[in-house]
Amino acid sequence: MSYDVASVRGQYVSLGDGWTYLNAHARPQIPETVSAAVSRSFRLAGCVADAESSSGSHSKQQTAGRLEADSLLASARIAVADLCGSSPERVVLGSSLPSLYMSLSQAMRPLLRHNSSVVLSRLDSPELNYPLEGLSAEVRWAQPDLGTGMLPSSQYTELVDGSTRLVSLSAAQSLLGTVAPVAEIVDYSRSRSRAWVLVEASAYAAYRPLAADQWDADIVALDLAALGGPQLGALVFRDSAMFRRLDQIREAPVAPGLAGGVPAMVGHLAGLSETIGTRRTRLQRSMGELDGYLKSLTDELYFLLGGLSSVHILGVSGEAGDGGAGDRVPRLSFAVRGVPAETVHQRLIDNGLVTTILPASQLFSEMGVDEVGGAVTASLAPFNTRYDIEHLTRVVASLA
Questions:
Q1: For residue 77, which of 191, 308, 237 has the smallest C-alpha distance?
Q2: pLDDT tens digits for 241-263?
Q3: Is the pTM above the cut of 0.70?
Q4: Which residues form the Aminotransferase class V domain (predicted)?
Q5: Measured by CB atoms within 10 angstroms of the end CB, which terminus of the chain is less buried, N or C?
Q6: 3-class DSSP state for residue 58?
Q7: Of 180, 280, 166, 174, whose CA–CA distance to 219 is shortest?
Q8: Domains plus CATH for the chain?
C-alpha cells in the first residue's frame, strides 16, 4: 500500500495559508482532528459523564456523577500506552517533559547512594539534562562524534559501572536527526550495572513505529506536542513495580481539555495510511509507511541540498561527515559558506519557507557552526512533498 500524501495534507487545515512548513522540530502543525478534540474536551471536562445502562461484561464501570475530566485523563494514558506498546498504568502524564524530568529526579532519591553516578548525553536538550544534573550523584557525559553527530555506544563500557543509577539519552537528536543505538546502549548498561535507562523518544516517535520493549529501556519519555499533539509530556515505565522503588512522582496538574487531544493525536498517526486492526496495529503499520515515505524524501534532500558545493550539512558534509550513510530521521541543520545564518533564514522566509536558525550551544560550536556563520535547521513532517524539497534547494542555491 502506497503512502497517500495528498490525503494526509487534507488533514491539516493550516496548510492552506500558502507557507511551506519545514519546522516540525520546532512547532509541528496541528491536525484538525486534534484541535477539534481539544476544543470539545474543554467544553465537556466539567460535565458529568454519561453512565452506560448496560451491565454486560464489556460495559464501562463508572461511578455515578463522575466528571468527563476523569475519563479524558484515562483515555490519554491509554492512547500513550498504545503509542509505545505499553499499558496505561505505567504512564505518567505531566504538563511538560522538563517538569516530569524534575519530578523524576526528586523521586529517584531512594535509589541513590553516596557514591552514585548518572550518565547523560551531550546530544540531549540542556533543559532536560538540567534536572538530572541536580541529582546527588557524579555526572558523567557521553560525547558524540563531532564529525557525524552520532552517539558511539562503545563509550558506555567505560562510563557505566556498578555505581551508575541512571543512564539518560535521546533516541534521535532533534536538530541533527542522528539516531542513537539505544538497544546497544541498554545492553551495555545492563551488563555493567543495575542502572535505569531513560530514553527521550519524541523526535524518533514522530517518524517511526515506537515499541519500547524492543529497546528494553526502563523509562520512555515523550513530548506529545512534538508529535502534533497538545502541550503535554509523558513518562512510560517498563514495569509498574518500578513505582515502589521511587518516592511518589508529583504530577504537575494536567488540563483535562488538553488531555482530550491525546487520543485524537494518536488516532491521527494511526490513520496516516488506510489499514485495519486495533489502534496499536494501525499505528505500527501507518508509521511504518510514513517512515518509508520520508526516508525516500530524506535521501532526495541530502542529494539535492548536499549537492550544492556551498552547502555544508552538519554531520554529513566534509571529510569528517558520513555522507548521509548514518541512521537519521528527516531533520538536518545546514550552513551556506560565506552567508550568515540570519541571511539564509530571511531568504527562505521571503520565499515562503518556514525553518529556524540553529540555536547557539557548546556542542554546535565544537562542530564548527560558528566558523561558518551559523546554521539553519529544516525538518520534514507527514505532509511534506518532493516539491517542498525542490523549493528549499532552489532558494538555497540562489544564495550560493
A1: 237
A2: 999 999 988 767 899 999 999 99
A3: yes
A4: 53-239
A5: N
A6: coil
A7: 166
A8: 5-30+281-397 (3.90.1150.10), 36-270 (3.40.640.10)
